Structure to design on (518 residues):
């Protein structure tokens, strides 16, 4: 079998094949491979062939072709339905080995989505092909029950449900009934959410459809679920209030009254059980509440005492922390004062030592220089502070005055515009409005007036050559001005450099003079 699978894979890798040719090639290849494997005596051969088809990627080609748009298939619906049926058959009994997680979580949902998409496209074209697609979906669901939630919540399946054709609805309900009948573990393996979705499907058909075949199939599906799920179904039926009245009102007299009576009895038995359980649950809740209140009263005294103790301890802890923080703050202030005094003593000591090193005749001049520097520093700080205050006050007054002037100007402008608007004369109609046309004599007269006006008021138009010439002159003037400014800037830099050099030489001479005196 492996040569057939390899040959089929090699043929599918040809990029020149169209989607129709690939579908035909896959139908022929899969039919031939599965028939040869089914003829074998051992069932393991068929399982091994299906596993090879999955691992080689042939089944992925099938899914891609089934997921194509309807226009790409060009109406070859029968071949597409056959390919869907073969793909569903190949997905049952596969042993993916180490790729098990990817097979169940990714590949199988993609196969189901492709089948439902193709079914939604075929439901209005051919009932037989749609039936074949739903059989493929049911065959896949019997083997993989975890896909039930995906099917019931799929967008394509919702599109199928919204179809007005009763035959389509009947095929969907029959598909679920056949799936539940063929596999006894199907319903038991469903989660509560999946079972609720399936029950919602059957009840929805009962509420929407008025066809006896659809109603009988839906009631049969619910009874089948009741026979296999029993207690679980009674709990789920609590979400559908009024279902028994709906059955009694709308679905009697259609030839399946026994099924209707059986389903109504099942629903009402669940209600009586529910009422008994509710009474028992209410008694349990009341007993628990009374015991809780009693325990709370007993524990309230201890809790009150513990709360008071806790608050007292917390308040005492806060007071202690506040005292410690105050103590540390005072200690820090004391340490700062001590260090400042030590630094001041050390500074005065160093000054005394320096004064002892100086000659007696230079002590007075040194002290005067220190006082002068201190005075200069104090004066500079004071002048800076005073100038900043003066600048801030001046800037603030300037901003206020500017804002006031702008507001006054806006007010005056608004008043003047309003006055001018009122004084504006009403628009006058032009003399040519309402005339049917100009005569030749009037046209000649107007042309003469225009020429006289042009002769008296010559145009201020300047030709392009004059504009270019003026532009060049302006550029030359701007360039000369920039060169003159650059030259002045260089002279200023040279002057500042000479001044700095002169100051440096004077400082050096002054320092040399003091050195000679020492």
């Amino acid at each position: 079998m492996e040569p057939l699978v390899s040959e089929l894979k090699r043929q599918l890798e040809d990029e020149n094949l169209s989607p129709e040719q690939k579908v035909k090639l896959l139908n022929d290849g899969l039919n031939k491979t599965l028939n040869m494997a089914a003829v074998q005596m051992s069932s393991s051969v068929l399982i091994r062939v299906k596993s090879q088809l999955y691992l080689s990627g042939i089944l992925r080609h099938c899914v891609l072709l089934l997921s194509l748009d309807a226009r790409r298939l060009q109406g070859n619906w029968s071949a597409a339905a056959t390919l869907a049926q073969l793909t569903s058959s190949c997905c049952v009994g596969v042993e993916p080995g180490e790729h098990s997680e990817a097979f169940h979580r990714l590949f199988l949902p993609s196969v189901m989505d492709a089948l439902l998409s193709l079914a939604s496209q075929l439901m209005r074209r051919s009932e037989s092909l749609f039936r074949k697609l739903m059989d493929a979906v049911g065959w896949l669901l019997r083997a993989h029950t975890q896909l039930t939630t995906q099917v019931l919540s799929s967008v394509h399946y919702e599109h199928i449900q919204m179809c007005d054709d009763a035959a389509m609805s009947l095929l969907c309900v029959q598909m679920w009934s056949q799936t539940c009948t063929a596999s006894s573990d199907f319903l038991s393996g469903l989660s509560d959410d999946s079972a609720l979705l399936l029950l919602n499907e059957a009840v929805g058909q009962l509420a929407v459809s008025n066809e006896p075949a659809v109603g009988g199939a839906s009631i049969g599906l619910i009874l089948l679920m009741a026979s296999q799920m029993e207690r679980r179904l009674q709990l789920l039926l609590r979400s559908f209030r009024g279902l028994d009245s709906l059955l009694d009102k709308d679905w009697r007299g259609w030839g399946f009254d026994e099924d209707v009576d059986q389903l109504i009895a099942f629903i009402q038995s669940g209600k009586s059980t529910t009422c008994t359980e509710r009474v028992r649950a209410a008694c349990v809740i009341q007993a628990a509440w009374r015991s809780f209140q009693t325990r709370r009263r007993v524990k309230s005294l201890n809790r009150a005492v513990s709360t008071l103790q806790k608050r007292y301890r917390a308040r005492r802890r806060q007071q202690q922390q506040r005292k410690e923080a105050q103590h540390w703050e005072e200690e820090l202030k004391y340490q700062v004062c001590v260090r400042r005094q030590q630094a001041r003593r050390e500074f005065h000591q160093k000054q005394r030592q320096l004064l002892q090193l100086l000659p007696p005749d230079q002590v007075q001049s040194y002290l005067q220089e220190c006082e002068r520097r201190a005075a200069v520093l104090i004066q500079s700080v004071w002048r800076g502070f005073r100038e900043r205050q003066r600048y801030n006050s001046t800037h603030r007054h300037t901003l206020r005055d500017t804002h006031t002037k702008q507001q006054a100007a806006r007010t005056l402008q608004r008043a003047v515009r309003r006055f001018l608007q009122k004084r504006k004369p009403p628009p006058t109609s032009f003399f040519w409005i309402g005339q049917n046309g100009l005569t030749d004599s009037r046209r000649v007269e107007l042309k003469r007036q225009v020429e006289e006006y042009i002769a008296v008021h010559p145009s201020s138009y300047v030709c392009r050559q004059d504009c270019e010439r003026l532009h060049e002159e302006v550029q030359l003037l701007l360039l000369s001005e920039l060169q003159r400014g650059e030259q002045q800037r260089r002279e200023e830099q040279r002057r500042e450099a000479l001044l700095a050099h002169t100051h440096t030489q004077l400082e050096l001479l002054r320092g040399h003079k003091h050195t000679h005196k020492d």
